[in-house]
Every structure is written in C-alpha cells, then in structure tokens.
Amino acid sequence: MANSNGLVRERRIAVGIFFVVLAAYILTYNGAFKSNDERALFSGIDSFIKRGAFTTNQIYWDYTHVGVFTTGGDMVPNYEPAQMVVAIPLYLWGRALAAGVQGVMFFGAIVVAASAALICLSLLELGCARRSAALGAFVFAFATAAWPYSRSFFREPLTILAYLLAFYGLFRYRPPAPRRLIWPALTGFALGLALTTKQIGVAIVPSLLLAVGYERRRAVMDDRRLTTDET
C-alpha cells in the first residue's frame, strides 16, 4: 500500500464490504437451529454462563456424539471451546431480550461478513486492484457456501476467519511495510483460535510455513537484485 491515505481508503472499503454483506445476510437470517451440533454448542454457552463450566445436562437426550460424559457423570459438548467463548457477547445480548438462541444465531452472519472484508484486505495486500479485491470479497460472500453457513451456528465460519487472519498477519509483515511484531502475533493468535475452534485447523500449519519460506526467499532475491543494481 502506497501511503497512509491509501491505507485508510482501503480499510474503509473493507468496512463497507462488511456492512453490505452483513445487511444482505440479515435479510435471510434464520434464528433457529438446524442440527444437534448447533444445539450442543449453544448448550455449552448456556451452561458456562449459568454454572461457570461447559458441563450441561441439556444434551443428555442426545445420542449422536455431540456430547461426551465426564468422569463426574456430566455431559459436555464434544467440541473445542473457542466458538462457545467468542459467541458469549451475542448470547448475553439475546438473553437480555429473552431471545438467547436468536442472539447467538447472528454469530455466523457477523463472522462471515468479517471474513469477506478480510478477503478484500488480503487481496489488496497481494497487489490486487481495489475493484478486483472487492469483487473477490463479494464472490466469496454471495457465490459460495459462505452464505448458507452464515445462517448457521456451525464452527466452519469461525475457522475460516481464523485462517484468513493468520495469512493476513503474514501479508502485513512483508517488506517493504514496517515489520511490526503485532502482525506475527496476530498470526499466532489466529492459529491458536483455529486450533481451539476445530482441531483440524492444524492443517493450515504447512501452508503458513510455505508462505513464510516463500517470503524469506523473496526477501533474499530482492536484496540480491538491489545489490546488483547498485553495482
């Protein structure tokens, strides 16, 4: 990105994409669960707020492996905890309006809209034109499975957002941009978020290592090219 004015403008584009996508998703919002997976995740949130632990009796009835028994005889959601923790603010908002489920069901729409905005920013970091970056974000939001997932409380949207954050942190750490430690820290945080949302998130590690290796090689080649030009 050429200058601070360009950076501000591109961030405004990303914010605009977020709100446009979110507005469209709200029009097709569905405030009801479709599967036992969603119910189990909600039960974990509900239990954590009411009892201070993810153990819950709300899913004792279930026999589809969305819950597992503890040694104490309680049943806990058979999922990693990140999504249950991150969605707590929406649960509290919905509960204040006597609509805890409906509040939580906004989670997917917000997360997928944020992913669309992050795709735009990532494409800009890779050198795409602003129109191309915005188009890529809208294709993701409206021409893929992202839209149906925005109407659910599944873990895939948060996992995708974590992946995008991890790569965006690497993109921002590339020269000639200032090498601020906040960007590799963001990548580390995003990787941790992915792993604690779905353990399959470990699959992103090889891709991140390849990206790091590529950037190091690119930096070395650029240094050699500058040295050759100077001589």
Outline the structure in words.
There is one protein chain. The protein is mainly α. It is built from 11 helices and 2 strands. A two-stranded antiparallel sheet has the order 1-2. A hairpin with a 5-residue loop joins strand 1 (67-69) and strand 2 (75-77). The longest helix has 27 residues, at 204-230. The chain is globular. The two termini are 28 Å apart. The relative contact order is 0.11.
The outline comes out as: globular
Helix content: 55-70%
Give the N-to-C terminal Cα separation: 28 Å
Strand tally is 2
> What integer is the average pLDDT?
86
SS summary, helix count:
11
Please indicate the percent range of residues in DSSP E strands (runs of 2 or more): under 5%
Major beta sheet, strand line-up: 1-2
- What does the largest sheet look like? 2 strands, antiparallel
Which residue ranges are poorly predicted, with pLDDT under 50 across at least 5 consecutive positions? none
Structural class: mainly alpha
Topology order in helix (H) and strand (E) letters = HHEEHHHHHHHHH
Please state the CA-atom Rg, rounded to the nearest Å: 21 Å
